[in-house]
Amino acid sequence: KGITIGGTHYSANITQNSTNEYNITLKTRSLLGDMIMLHKDKGAWYFSVLSVGFGITLFMLYISGLMITLFANKKDRSKQFAVLGVGVVVTLLLAYLSL
């Protein structure tokens, strides 16, 4: 009901109550509210692309976890932690840019 403008972090809504009376509502979300809006896919398009990438990655991690369990390869632990760290940095960067 009414017109809403704004983004993930801030929004403004205007509704008409009567002929010459309007109700304006302003919302500034907290960090938790921003995270919920990103979860609801209300951010920029590149965070949506990241979410599809996460879905594919979860499937690949499941399969690779089974393979690691079968072969127990422990010599490349530093590379595995480096890739994990890069993934966390990219996720935080895209979340920040989407707000």
Automatic annotation (TrEMBL):
Q: Which domain of life is it from?
A: Bacteria
What is the recorded name of this protein? Answer: Uncharacterized protein
Lineage, opening ranks: Bacteria, Pseudomonadati, Campylobacterota, Epsilonproteobacteria, Campylobacterales
Parts of the chain that traverse the membrane: 44-69, 81-98
Is Membrane tagged as a keyword? yes
Q: Which UniProt keywords apply?
A: Membrane, Transmembrane, Transmembrane helix
